[in-house]
Amino acid sequence: MNSSHLNKKKIINDPVFGFINIQSELVFDLIEHPFFQRLRRIKQLGLSFLVFPGANHTRFEHAIGALHLMRQAISVLRLKGHEITEDEAEAVTIAILLHDIGHAPFSHVLENTLVEFPHEEISLLLMQELNHQFKGKLDLVIKIFTNKYHKQFLHQLVASQLDMDRLDYLSRDSFFTGVTEGIVGIDRIIKMLNVVEDQLVVDAKGIYSIEKFLIARRLMYWQVYLHKTVVSAEFLLINVLKRARELVAAGESLFATPTLDVFLKNSFNSQEFKNNTPILGKNILEWYSLLDDNDILASVKEWQNHSDPVLSKLANSITNRKLFTTKIKSKPISDKWKSKMLKKITLEITKDEKISGHFLITGEITNNALNRDSENILILFKKGKVKDIRKASDINLSALTKTVRKYFACFPKELDIY
């Protein structure tokens, strides 16, 4: 083996899991690829750092952590007598490594404004492009990722109620936000994994760790992912980008990085993504692979000085953390209240009722830790009996399957009259 091969056996020091070995040359080459390196420039929790100052971790280290957990899960399942070949092990490890490769900056914020195409589908398109560049070495990876491989439990390790993605992000997000409610017994959960009739299951001894995992997930959603100030920041950013698009469409001159400019001036549909349509000398996927948090933040910082009062005020709100007040209610926000608030915004903020709507954001947020219809966690008892966690647990998990729906209103702090 020459020195260039030896040089690919790197060790990464991860703050959550310690030293992680890069054991495969193909994994190393994929990590080195610009598509994957882009994940260093996309924060895992978007604008949550405005609430939790430590939440500056990226999708890059999340993907490396998920890879590490996947290798542990493979070892456990092999020890329990389940055959996973070397090719399958490498493929499922790469599938989890690349599962987030199509994520837009600021997660779901851009997914609904600049890019109207789900990140999971973009991940698949980028995997297919990588497969082309790596001369078919990701064929099995893509089969597992799309659940078209005959061993279904491998796909479940990548995408299911108990996948390595969730196990990593709960622990990692808990670590970096300092919200201890998200800490779960990952080592125990992984050691309890098993397979019955090609389905991923958990040995009965691990049932309490699964209960804790489900409760932790629910608490992390309310305390971190759906924290009311995070919701306010994310919807402010959506409104900033919507206003930027309106101005660009009206012919206004607007500072933007070249990459962001492409997405402000064009609305690409799913077919254009799938065809990888060329524009301005690059294909859409190439432009997308250049888009990261830096494009958005640098542009928003500049927009503070724009002549448009909506764009400048909203951009200033994000850049200098002058976030809107957010009120959470159990019932939808009434039209009467909205009308009253819009009048107040016109009177005290905008002096122009045509633009007042940009300063009032209403909507709903939902949370359920366990989807009643589509997601099961199966518990394996002695003599091979398998039960769904909801029937196996001696605590009532109905609260976790119930979708909790809350309604919110965000508006300038100086108008806190709710």
Give an account of the 3D structure.
It is a single chain. This protein is α+β, with helices and mostly antiparallel strands. 50% of the residues lie in helices and 11% in strands. The protein has 21 helices and eleven strands. It has helices spanning 3-6, 25-32, 34-37, 59-79, 86-97, 108-111, 119-133, 139-145, 152-158, 164-177, 186-191, 207-225, 228-249, 258-265, 270-275, 284-288, 293-303, 309-319, 335-350, 389-392, 398-401; strands at 11-14, 18-21, 193-196, 199-203, 278-279, 282-283, 325-329, 361-367, 378-380, 386-388, 404-411. The strands form four sheets. Strands 3-4-9-10 form a four-stranded mixed beta sheet. Strand 5 and strand 6 (282-283) form a beta hairpin. Helix 4 (59-79) packs antiparallel against helix 5. The longest helix has 22 residues, at 228-249. The protein is globular. The N and C termini lie far apart (70 Å). The model has no long low-confidence stretch (mean pLDDT 92).
